[in-house]
Amino acid sequence: MKKKQFFRVIEPYLYLLPAMFFFSAFLFWPFLKTIWLSFAMTTPLGAVSSFVGLGNYLSIFTSQAFQNSLFVSFKYAVMTVTCSIVMGFILAIISNEDIKGKNLFRTFYALPMAISAAAASVVFMFIFHSSLGIINKVLGTHIGWLTDPKYALNAVTIVTVWMNIGLNFIFLTAALQSVPLDLYECAAIEGAGFFAKHKHITIPCISPTLFFLLIINVINALQAYAQVKLMTQGGPSGSTNVIVYQIYQEAFMNSRFGMACAESIVLFIILMVLTLIQFRLEKKVTY
Amino acid sequence: MKRRKKWLAAIMAAVMSMTLAACGGSATSGGTTAAGSSDAATTKAAADTQAPAEGGKTVITLWHAMGGVNGEATEALVKAFNESQNEIEVKSEYQGKYDDLITKLKAAMQSGSMPDVCQMYDIGTKFMTDSGHAIPVQDMFATTNFDPSTVMNIITSYYTVNGKQMSMPFNVSTPMLYYNKDVFKAAGLDPNTPPKTFDEVLEFSKKIVESKAAPVGYAQAIYGWFFEQQIAGQGKYYANNENGRKAPATEVDFLNNGAGLKIFETWKKLMDSGYADNYGSTTADTQTAFFSGQAAMIIESTAILKTATESSDFEIGTGYLPKIDASATDGGVIIGGASLWMMDNKDEAKKNAAWKFIEFTTTPDSQATWSMSTGYFAVNPKAYETPAMKDFIAQNPNFTTAINQLKDTPVNGYTAGVLSGVATESRTIFNEAMEKTYDGTYTPEQAVSFLAEKVNAAIVNYNSSTK
């Protein structure tokens, strides 16, 4: 009898064990090691050469490059998240109307999702090329989309928005379909127009989805890397040097793993705080 | 319906049991390996020499960073070596670009899974030397009576640290001027006289743009390598302690000797003239502008000669790297490209095999084939005496530019290039300094001091972390 009781207590933990093993090996251990390394100075091979206490943290906060990368990342996050959610929403609404070839449009809109960031970046590099690119040809301009600090971040944003729309579109389309139709019928009877209908019914009804998308889009934006690595390498003049690229450069180009770890920890804290704030807000803004 | 569900369940169960079986299988084999490696070191050494043997051959791995046309040439070279004898088999693995390769090698050094031969770009020389994982090639010369003068002195000088040749130059390139002969003709310029100085570059660009022969006269990628080249071209040091070769460099020299400022001023003036254009820090974008006929002149590595000839439908001309300071006499170009390093895997058989492969790459025939199929410079001067190479050069006179440019370069501390542990970082900082000069944020003076200050900080950090 006692034996059975004991088994009952430990049974759930046994089920957790395999997952915990993989989590520990691939998440917890690297995380702890990152914290540990963030207090150290490393040799070019990544071995600890001496401990510097909070030295790395002090130097990243006085480093202009790091401050710049935080600023760039936030600017980038605000631009990509707003644009891709708004555009995903507009496309979802349009393709939710009763029109011919609805499913075809839906497939088209979701398609960019299937393209990897690397492939998209390479294609857009041709599109943005200052003398051969189609954008300058069409506009009749001579803008260095990827070489002029005024435009480079916008160009990277455009690519990211294009890539993210697909995912946002799918989630929002699904959400739109779960909005009860009778609400719209009621509204129609009361004489609500297109905009009033969406403002007062659609948006409140899909607010949990919007909120979910907001969180994952922000996290994605702050973790952006491939586009920057391929299209601009953080340049020109650091104008596209987002935080993850800055970390990559610090670790793998400059071989200062300690500094890179300290920067990762800062990114982690920022993401955690943002997520906490968003969850607090969720209770207020969604139904 | 119900029936179908049953079938589905049965199939899923079968799949699951198969996966389980697979897991069980790997667990057992994992166990055996663990047991094996826990044995005495002697067993391990024996296992190492036995394990790679495939039909009595010593198998060694080569990591390289050669893609595209150059990658095919590398594979061909490896194949030629494997077919030339029957004791050693080289397996070559492409690891991405130079920067990716060094990152992977760092990881491999830590996990103890290094290749036996590794290609490494010029600026990785200091890192490789300091890592302690490399066997200096000079230590192997005696084993096969290799004559060190096989390879040109100007080339080995770059890879010589503290008087010892660390690695074997493999793909050697220098920057040179590429120009569009058709555009030169259309602009009324002599298609056989490329500009020799940057003053001439400006003058020619003006003529090209004003005669509407091409929209852009001159373009050059933002690339720290070109900056290093122009310092050597002026006969000046990049860093103190004779470019870090007499003793580890402790600070940059280009700030005090004025070479840096001259470069920034010249390039800024050229860009501001409106006859030149900037396509950013990705060299491929500048190449594309040239291949498509947009830009009439570019600076590029001699290594893209083959690609350039294949990618453009106009006649290409080549010239020496234009000079910033026409009066500098003891300057020249620094050799770039990469060399082959022997990694210390504590295995005598592999070590000897690795050296034999490296030695093979330096033979006149290997170098001639390699050079003809890539555009890289042949490190063994005898390669130019082979009949195949002679014919080739007669048909492709552009290849002679690279050869003559290197022959005209004096062997000295300036042209040996800087030996720096922070070369990659310095180039990134250079990009920022140059970009900010082009967009007007910095004056050339501010840009040079910014660059010097940042590079100095990196050098100090490197020196204290490797102490």
From TrEMBL, chain A:
Against InterPro entries, the record matches this protein to: ABC_transporter_permease, MetI-like, MetI-like_sf
| UniProt keywords, alphabetically | Cell membrane, Membrane, Transmembrane, Transmembrane helix, Transport
Protein's UniProt keywords contain Membrane: yes
ABC transmembrane type-1 domain mapped to chain residues: 70-278
GO CC terms: plasma membrane
Give TM regions. Answer: 12-29, 35-58, 70-94, 114-139, 151-175, 201-222, 257-279
Q: Which SUPFAM superfamilies does the record associate with it?
A: MetI-like
Please list the GO biological process terms of this entry.
Answer: transmembrane transport
PROSITE patterns from the entry?
A: ABC_TM1
Output the superkingdom of the source species. Answer: Bacteria
Entry's localization field: Cell membrane
**Per the record's keyword annotation, is Transmembrane helix included, yes or no?**
yes
- Protein topology in the membrane: Multi-pass membrane protein
Gene3D superfamilies for the chain = MetI-like
Q: Where is the signal peptide?
A: none
Instruction: State the family it belongs to.
Output: Belongs to the binding-protein-dependent transport system permease family.
- Quote the protein name from its UniProt record: Glycerol-3-phosphate ABC transporter permease
UniProtKB/TrEMBL annotation, chain B:
- CC per GO annotation: cell envelope
Q: Identify the SUPFAM superfamilies for this entry.
A: Periplasmic binding protein-like II
Which CDD domains has this protein been placed in? Answer: PBP2_UgpB
Signal peptide positions on this chain: 1-21
Q: Does the keyword Transport apply?
A: yes
- What subcellular locations does the record give? Cell envelope
Q: What keywords is this UniProt entry annotated with? A: Signal, Transport
InterPro entries hit by this protein: Bact_solute-bd_prot1 (IPR050490), SBP (IPR006059)
Query: Principal localization?
Result: other
A Pfam family the protein falls into: SBP_bac_8
What protein name applies here? ABC transporter substrate-binding protein
What organism does the UniProt record list as the source? Answer: Lacrimispora celerecrescens
